[in-house]
Amino acid sequence: MVCFQGIFSQEPDTISVKKHPLLENRYLLATGFFVNLKSVKIDVNGVLPSNPIDFGETLGMDRRENTFAFGFDWRFSKEMNWHASLEYFRIFNTQTTTIEDQIKWSNTIYPVGVILDSGIQVDLYRIFFGRVISRGMKHEFSGGLGIHTMNINSFIQGRAYIGSEDYALDPGKKRVKVLAPVPNIGFRYVYAPSVRWAVSARVEWFSLAIGEYSGRLWNLEPTVSFQLTKTFNIGMGYKYFKANIGVFKNVWEGGSDLLYQGPLFSLRGTF
Protein backbone atom coordinates (compact mmCIF):
# COMPACT_ATOMS: atom_id res chain seq x y z
CA MET A 1 0.00 0.00 0.00
CA VAL A 2 1.62 3.23 -1.15
CA CYS A 3 0.98 6.96 -1.00
CA PHE A 4 0.98 9.56 -3.77
CA GLN A 5 -0.14 13.09 -4.95
CA GLY A 6 -2.19 14.47 -7.88
CA ILE A 7 -3.36 17.86 -9.16
CA PHE A 8 -7.10 17.76 -9.81
CA SER A 9 -9.21 20.43 -11.51
CA GLN A 10 -12.94 19.90 -11.32
CA GLU A 11 -14.91 20.29 -14.55
CA PRO A 12 -18.58 19.45 -15.13
CA ASP A 13 -18.94 15.66 -14.80
CA THR A 14 -15.20 15.16 -15.46
CA ILE A 15 -11.90 15.16 -13.62
CA SER A 16 -8.62 16.11 -15.26
CA VAL A 17 -5.27 15.49 -13.58
CA LYS A 18 -1.62 15.80 -14.21
CA LYS A 19 -1.10 12.36 -12.68
CA HIS A 20 -3.15 9.72 -10.96
CA PRO A 21 -3.30 10.37 -7.16
CA LEU A 22 -1.52 7.07 -6.48
CA LEU A 23 1.47 8.44 -8.37
CA GLU A 24 1.71 11.86 -6.73
CA ASN A 25 0.19 12.20 -3.27
CA ARG A 26 2.52 12.37 -0.28
CA TYR A 27 0.37 10.49 2.27
CA LEU A 28 -1.85 7.44 2.08
CA LEU A 29 -4.08 5.93 4.78
CA ALA A 30 -5.67 2.57 4.09
CA THR A 31 -8.00 0.11 5.77
CA GLY A 32 -8.83 -3.26 4.28
CA PHE A 33 -11.10 -6.24 4.85
CA PHE A 34 -9.10 -9.46 4.45
CA VAL A 35 -11.06 -12.65 3.70
CA ASN A 36 -8.33 -15.22 4.18
CA LEU A 37 -7.80 -18.95 4.09
CA LYS A 38 -5.12 -19.81 6.60
CA SER A 39 -2.86 -22.72 7.44
CA VAL A 40 -1.03 -22.74 10.79
CA LYS A 41 1.46 -25.41 11.82
CA ILE A 42 3.48 -25.10 15.05
CA ASP A 43 6.18 -27.33 16.52
CA VAL A 44 7.18 -27.00 20.18
CA ASN A 45 10.09 -29.24 21.18
CA GLY A 46 10.76 -30.30 24.74
CA VAL A 47 12.85 -33.24 25.92
CA LEU A 48 10.71 -35.57 23.83
CA PRO A 49 10.72 -35.35 20.01
CA SER A 50 7.63 -33.86 18.38
CA ASN A 51 6.10 -33.15 15.00
CA PRO A 52 4.45 -29.90 13.83
CA ILE A 53 0.78 -29.66 14.84
CA ASP A 54 -1.64 -28.52 12.15
CA PHE A 55 -4.12 -26.29 14.01
CA GLY A 56 -6.68 -26.78 11.26
CA GLU A 57 -6.48 -30.48 10.43
CA THR A 58 -5.53 -31.78 13.91
CA LEU A 59 -7.25 -29.29 16.23
CA GLY A 60 -10.27 -28.49 14.06
CA MET A 61 -9.80 -24.74 13.63
CA ASP A 62 -11.75 -23.06 10.83
CA ARG A 63 -9.50 -22.41 7.86
CA ARG A 64 -11.39 -19.26 6.86
CA GLU A 65 -11.20 -16.09 8.90
CA ASN A 66 -12.13 -12.47 8.18
CA THR A 67 -10.00 -9.71 9.62
CA PHE A 68 -9.10 -6.05 9.09
CA ALA A 69 -5.76 -4.72 7.85
CA PHE A 70 -4.41 -1.19 8.25
CA GLY A 71 -1.66 0.67 6.41
CA PHE A 72 0.07 4.03 6.15
CA ASP A 73 2.49 5.34 3.50
CA TRP A 74 4.55 8.53 3.55
CA ARG A 75 6.78 10.05 0.87
CA PHE A 76 9.20 11.88 3.12
CA SER A 77 11.77 13.34 0.72
CA LYS A 78 11.40 16.67 -1.07
CA GLU A 79 11.41 15.05 -4.50
CA MET A 80 9.19 12.24 -3.11
CA ASN A 81 11.66 9.59 -4.25
CA TRP A 82 11.78 7.92 -0.81
CA HIS A 83 8.86 6.43 1.06
CA ALA A 84 8.14 4.63 4.34
CA SER A 85 5.29 2.16 4.84
CA LEU A 86 3.61 0.66 7.90
CA GLU A 87 1.09 -2.20 7.91
CA TYR A 88 -0.70 -4.26 10.56
CA PHE A 89 -3.19 -7.10 10.73
CA ARG A 90 -4.16 -9.73 13.32
CA ILE A 91 -5.34 -13.34 13.09
CA PHE A 92 -7.04 -14.84 16.16
CA ASN A 93 -8.75 -18.21 16.61
CA THR A 94 -9.79 -20.53 19.45
CA GLN A 95 -11.23 -24.01 19.20
CA THR A 96 -12.35 -26.94 21.36
CA THR A 97 -12.07 -30.39 19.84
CA THR A 98 -11.68 -34.09 20.68
CA ILE A 99 -8.43 -35.22 19.11
CA GLU A 100 -8.34 -38.34 16.94
CA ASP A 101 -4.55 -38.76 16.98
CA GLN A 102 -2.02 -38.57 19.77
CA ILE A 103 -0.13 -35.28 19.80
CA LYS A 104 2.78 -33.84 21.75
CA TRP A 105 3.02 -30.19 22.82
CA SER A 106 6.23 -29.26 24.65
CA ASN A 107 6.69 -32.11 27.18
CA THR A 108 3.03 -33.13 27.40
CA ILE A 109 1.58 -36.02 25.40
CA TYR A 110 -2.18 -35.87 24.75
CA PRO A 111 -3.68 -39.28 23.90
CA VAL A 112 -6.49 -40.04 21.46
CA GLY A 113 -9.92 -38.96 22.71
CA VAL A 114 -8.83 -36.12 24.95
CA ILE A 115 -10.77 -32.85 24.69
CA LEU A 116 -8.43 -29.94 24.02
CA ASP A 117 -8.86 -26.18 24.09
CA SER A 118 -6.47 -24.48 21.70
CA GLY A 119 -5.80 -20.99 20.44
CA ILE A 120 -3.57 -19.08 18.07
CA GLN A 121 -3.00 -15.35 17.71
CA VAL A 122 -0.61 -13.77 15.23
CA ASP A 123 -0.04 -10.00 15.17
CA LEU A 124 1.88 -8.98 12.06
CA TYR A 125 3.71 -5.65 11.81
CA ARG A 126 5.37 -4.58 8.55
CA ILE A 127 7.82 -1.68 8.19
CA PHE A 128 9.29 -0.90 4.77
CA PHE A 129 11.60 1.78 3.32
CA GLY A 130 11.78 2.15 -0.43
CA ARG A 131 13.09 4.34 -3.22
CA VAL A 132 11.77 5.07 -6.71
CA ILE A 133 13.82 3.35 -9.41
CA SER A 134 11.80 4.50 -12.42
CA ARG A 135 8.73 6.70 -12.91
CA GLY A 136 6.66 8.31 -15.64
CA MET A 137 3.32 9.99 -16.14
CA LYS A 138 1.48 6.67 -15.82
CA HIS A 139 3.79 4.36 -13.91
CA GLU A 140 6.21 4.00 -11.03
CA PHE A 141 8.64 1.22 -10.09
CA SER A 142 10.37 1.15 -6.70
CA GLY A 143 12.36 -1.18 -4.47
CA GLY A 144 13.60 -1.27 -0.91
CA LEU A 145 14.16 -3.09 2.37
CA GLY A 146 11.79 -3.90 5.19
CA ILE A 147 11.04 -6.15 8.13
CA HIS A 148 8.02 -8.24 9.08
CA THR A 149 7.71 -8.81 12.82
CA MET A 150 5.34 -11.56 13.93
CA ASN A 151 4.07 -11.77 17.49
CA ILE A 152 2.99 -15.42 17.73
CA ASN A 153 0.98 -16.52 20.75
CA SER A 154 -0.48 -20.05 20.92
CA PHE A 155 -1.71 -22.49 23.56
CA ILE A 156 -3.13 -25.98 24.11
CA GLN A 157 -4.96 -27.12 27.25
CA GLY A 158 -6.39 -30.55 28.08
CA ARG A 159 -9.61 -30.24 30.03
CA ALA A 160 -10.92 -33.82 30.20
CA TYR A 161 -9.79 -37.42 30.67
CA ILE A 162 -10.75 -40.56 28.80
CA GLY A 163 -13.33 -42.53 30.76
CA SER A 164 -12.10 -43.24 34.28
CA GLU A 165 -8.43 -43.47 33.38
CA ASP A 166 -6.29 -40.77 34.87
CA TYR A 167 -3.82 -39.32 32.39
CA ALA A 168 -2.82 -36.51 34.77
CA LEU A 169 -2.98 -33.83 32.14
CA ASP A 170 -1.63 -30.45 33.16
CA PRO A 171 -4.71 -28.35 34.10
CA GLY A 172 -2.97 -25.14 33.05
CA LYS A 173 -2.52 -23.83 29.52
CA LYS A 174 0.65 -24.88 27.75
CA ARG A 175 1.41 -21.55 26.10
CA VAL A 176 4.25 -20.47 23.82
CA LYS A 177 4.85 -16.90 22.74
CA VAL A 178 7.58 -15.31 20.66
CA LEU A 179 8.27 -12.09 18.77
CA ALA A 180 10.01 -13.08 15.54
CA PRO A 181 11.51 -10.52 13.10
CA VAL A 182 12.04 -11.48 9.45
CA PRO A 183 13.76 -8.93 7.15
CA ASN A 184 12.91 -8.77 3.47
CA ILE A 185 13.65 -7.08 0.18
CA GLY A 186 10.75 -5.90 -1.96
CA PHE A 187 9.61 -4.29 -5.18
CA ARG A 188 6.43 -2.45 -6.13
CA TYR A 189 4.99 -1.40 -9.48
CA VAL A 190 2.05 0.97 -10.09
CA TYR A 191 0.48 1.56 -13.48
CA ALA A 192 -2.37 4.07 -13.98
CA PRO A 193 -3.83 3.97 -17.52
CA SER A 194 -6.32 6.71 -16.61
CA VAL A 195 -7.22 9.13 -13.84
CA ARG A 196 -9.76 6.67 -12.45
CA TRP A 197 -8.04 3.31 -12.70
CA ALA A 198 -4.75 1.97 -11.36
CA VAL A 199 -3.11 -1.44 -11.15
CA SER A 200 -0.39 -2.18 -8.60
CA ALA A 201 1.65 -5.17 -7.48
CA ARG A 202 3.94 -5.74 -4.51
CA VAL A 203 6.44 -8.59 -4.10
CA GLU A 204 8.56 -9.13 -0.97
CA TRP A 205 10.85 -12.05 -0.16
CA PHE A 206 13.72 -13.07 2.09
CA SER A 207 15.43 -16.02 3.76
CA LEU A 208 17.87 -15.43 6.63
CA ALA A 209 18.93 -16.59 10.10
CA ILE A 210 19.33 -13.90 12.79
CA GLY A 211 20.55 -15.00 16.22
CA GLU A 212 17.82 -17.10 17.82
CA TYR A 213 15.59 -16.99 14.73
CA SER A 214 15.61 -18.25 11.17
CA GLY A 215 12.97 -17.41 8.63
CA ARG A 216 11.74 -17.50 5.05
CA LEU A 217 9.03 -15.18 3.81
CA TRP A 218 6.92 -14.46 0.73
CA ASN A 219 4.49 -11.53 0.59
CA LEU A 220 2.57 -10.93 -2.67
CA GLU A 221 -0.23 -8.42 -3.24
CA PRO A 222 -1.67 -7.46 -6.66
CA THR A 223 -4.44 -4.81 -6.54
CA VAL A 224 -6.83 -3.04 -8.92
CA SER A 225 -8.23 0.30 -7.66
CA PHE A 226 -10.83 2.82 -8.77
CA GLN A 227 -10.66 6.52 -7.85
CA LEU A 228 -13.99 7.62 -6.37
CA THR A 229 -13.07 11.24 -5.62
CA LYS A 230 -10.03 13.48 -5.47
CA THR A 231 -9.11 11.87 -2.12
CA PHE A 232 -10.63 8.38 -1.88
CA ASN A 233 -10.34 5.20 -3.89
CA ILE A 234 -11.50 1.61 -3.45
CA GLY A 235 -9.43 -1.42 -4.31
CA MET A 236 -9.78 -5.15 -4.76
CA GLY A 237 -6.74 -7.39 -4.64
CA TYR A 238 -5.35 -10.70 -3.49
CA LYS A 239 -2.95 -11.13 -0.59
CA TYR A 240 -0.58 -14.10 -0.23
CA PHE A 241 1.57 -14.24 2.88
CA LYS A 242 3.73 -17.26 3.76
CA ALA A 243 6.33 -17.39 6.55
CA ASN A 244 8.42 -20.25 7.94
CA ILE A 245 9.91 -19.35 11.32
CA GLY A 246 12.50 -21.31 13.30
CA VAL A 247 12.92 -20.47 16.99
CA PHE A 248 15.90 -21.54 19.13
CA LYS A 249 15.13 -20.18 22.60
CA ASN A 250 14.72 -21.75 26.03
CA VAL A 251 11.05 -20.76 26.16
CA TRP A 252 10.34 -22.20 22.71
CA GLU A 253 12.56 -24.42 20.60
CA GLY A 254 10.72 -25.32 17.44
CA GLY A 255 9.06 -23.36 14.69
CA SER A 256 5.92 -22.34 12.84
CA ASP A 257 4.62 -22.42 9.28
CA LEU A 258 2.09 -19.68 8.57
CA LEU A 259 0.10 -19.25 5.36
CA TYR A 260 -2.58 -16.58 4.82
CA GLN A 261 -4.15 -15.98 1.43
CA GLY A 262 -7.35 -14.54 0.04
CA PRO A 263 -9.09 -11.45 -1.39
CA LEU A 264 -8.42 -8.06 0.19
CA PHE A 265 -10.94 -5.22 -0.20
CA SER A 266 -9.59 -1.77 0.67
CA LEU A 267 -10.61 1.87 1.10
CA ARG A 268 -7.73 4.33 0.78
CA GLY A 269 -7.37 8.04 1.24
CA THR A 270 -4.54 10.00 -0.41
CA PHE A 271 -3.45 13.50 0.64
Order of helices and strands: EEEEEEEEEEEEEEE
Q: What portion of residues belong to β-strands?
A: over 45%
- The end-to-end span amounts to 14 Å
> How is the CATH topology named?
Lipocalin
Shape: elongated
Based on the coordinates given, report the CATH architecture.
Beta Barrel
**Count of extended strands:** 15
Structural class: mainly beta
Q: Strands of the largest sheet, in order across it?
A: 3-5-6-9-10-11-12-13-14-15
Question: Rg from C-alpha positions?
Answer: 23 Å
Number of domains: 1
Give me the CATH superfamily: OMPT-like
Itemize the secondary structure elements and their pairings.
Layout: E1 8-11, E2 14-17, E3 27-45, E4 53-54, E5 64-75, E6 82-98, E7 103-105, E8 108-110, E9 115-135, E10 139-158, E11 174-191, E12 197-210, E13 213-227, E14 232-248, E15 253-270
Antiparallel strand pairs: 1-2, 3-4, 3-5, 3-15, 5-6, 6-9, 7-8, 9-10, 10-11, 11-12, 12-13, 13-14, 14-15
